[in-house]
Amino acid sequence: MAMAGESSGINYGDCDGKVVGKVERKVGLIYDETMCKHDTPDGEDHPECPDRIRVIWEMLQLAGVSQRCVVLGSIKAEDKHLQLVHTKDHVNLVKTLSTKQKDYRRNKIASQLNSIYLNGSSSEAAYLAAGSVVKVAEKVAEGELDSGFAIVRPPGHHAETDEAMGFCLFNNVAVAASYLLNERPDLGVKKILIVDWDVHHGNGTQKMFWKDPRVLFFSVHRHEYGSFYPAGDDGDYDMVGEGPGEGFNINVPWDQGRCGDADYLAAWDHILIPVAREFNPDIILLSAGFDAAIGDPLGGCRVTPYGYSVMLKKLMEFAHGKIVMALEGGYNLASIAKSSLACVQVLLEDKEVQASSEVYPFESTWRVIQAVRKRLCAYWPSLADELSWNLVNQKTPTPIILISSSDSETEDDAQGLLDQMSKLSIENHQVETACTSWRADLAKVDVWYASFGSNMWKPRFLCYIQGGQVEGMKKACVGSMDKSPPKEIVWETFPHRLFFGRESSPSWGVGGVGFANPLANHNDQIHMCLYRITLEQFNDVLCQENGLNVDTDLPVFDLAALQLAENKGAIIPEAVSNSWYGSVVCLGKECDIPILTMTCTLSVFEKFKSGEIPLKPPAKAYANTFIRGLVEGGRFSEEEAEAYIDKAASTPL
Ligand code: Q9C
Ligand code: ZN
């Protein structure tokens, strides 16, 4: 590749008001228009588009920042360096993509891969992206540059040893890390910290250094119990590495999609920074995707340019500030341009990072951080201390837990969520007001809550009353306001159909959970465990089952609703009308006390029936709990319980 005129970055104070005479840090940049030629084969729109790197470059120029950096020419990666982390076959595949014989085969090849498009320029772009990251890394390691930013595409962190995926062809950052460690012992780089703040898990990078203690891989990403791209368990926090690499792989898996500066900085302060201090890297490679940025159409998170600048600033205290940033994802052009600018300004030590805004992490963020610390403290003693109660109580209340479908990667979904939230009209700031008056009234009325799924296991049901988290559950319950145990428990069967649906749930992870057909049918039989609780407690169970805060001003299901449910057989309380368990069904009476269950609404049932919402066999943890309930309740033997569930899971509606 032609050199884009390597300019010197010796800068003394200039008219921007910096101190005259202060030597600026040497920050390298690589950008090459050639990487814009990788595009969709027939011009369809795609989020990973050529303009991504153009807008970043333009922003750095407009802001007068690139002029103060050392601009390097791009260069193609060498095959032998690519083969440090990729197979010969994979390198060969990408190498030959632009040949004439492949002209007709590229679309076919791409279609067999996961989230990949290819055109005649993809090969060259991939070689330039990887080569450019290697080049910046080499110059930073040599000390010729203090730090650098390779503004490259296609991105790299999803690319596996033998496979392109997730818009990535070569794993640019992994190639650079492996090059420094294995090809350049002369540079003295013995320990590399790779930080991956792209909103997606860096699955490729994780695998490439899985057993390698020279590379500490840290990835923070949306995970949502394995339902977020690149779905599965790889990004979970118990993936800590293996053999000599055990403890050198750290995942911070968000379980909801709205994390912002406060959440990321909490992960920095309470996981990454203390571990980095212990690990003491010689250089830091940053898989700098900007798709956790506010406004990103795929990410859904809310990190601001300020947030990115603080995260980066905190990393600069290590490895003498030797940081190599490589662009990964990031699909909102304005967001990625602004975030990139903020980062380069930090690399230039341009300005003091301004004060923080007054926001706190989510409650779920603290839960994830505590789980990660617990899992990794054997390897990193600085993680061993319990976080202080004061700290973890600084949190933003979650008004409603996202009822996650398998893939919330579209703006439509985000809009749908907003609609859903406004319909539910959850008031977030009224918890202190008189929310207790209705409770006393409803505490005087008893109902049978008829459970038919995991709640049939008493310890699981008690989580909804007393709070807590039993085996198999992914998150804790707050419990009911009134924590008294059920007064009585009985088992009965009813003429309703049990079935399993949904892609995943916050409590159990990937896989379906149980529903009952809201309509009775005498050919069906469902086994239910009835708990006698108060109507007040029933409200709190209904809220928790639907991911709502129990701390509501008004009851979701009051005496009038109970009357209606008894008369009509079922009602849909407004506050849960859009949630999975939106229908309260009255199954009759027992000892003159109404029997209530909760299941999906009829309209959702119709969607399950038509296939619009898929039926799904139960999640493993869910099925185990379900079986335990039936067995420990004395209803069934283990074999019978399994057969009951299998039948419900395999019979069409
Ligand atoms: N349901 C990077 O950010 N999404 N890659 C596919 C299929 C792929 C993102 C959604 C997202 C890949 C580098
Ligand atoms: Zn990404």
Concise summary:
Keywords: Chromatin regulator, Repressor. The protein contains 20 helices and 18 strands.
Can you put this structure into words, describing what you see?
It is a single chain. This protein is of the alpha/beta class. It has 20 helices and 18 strands. The chain has helices spanning 51-62, 79-82, 88-95, 106-111, 122-142, 172-183, 203-208, 261-279, 305-315, 333-347, 363-376, 389-392, 411-424, 437-442, 458-466, 535-545, 559-568, 602-610, 620-632, 638-650, and strands at 27-30, 70-72, 147-150, 192-196, 215-222, 249-254, 283-288, 323-327, 446-451, 489-494, 498-501, 504-505, 509-510, 513-516, 526-534, 570-571, 583-590, 593-599. The strands form 4 sheets. Strands 2-1-3-8-7-4-5-6 form an 8-stranded parallel β-sheet, with helices on both faces. Strands 10-15-9-18-17-16 form a 6-stranded mixed β-sheet. Strands 11-14 form a two-stranded antiparallel sheet. Helix 7 (203-208) links the parallel strand 4 and strand 5. The longest helix is centred in the N-terminal third of the chain and has 21 residues, at 122-142. It is elongated, with a radius of gyration of 28 Å. It starts with 26 loop residues before the first strand and ends with a helix. Bound molecules: N-{4-[(3-aminopropyl)amino]butyl}acetamide and zinc ion (ZN). Residues 198-200, 289, 291, 328-329 line the site of zinc ion.
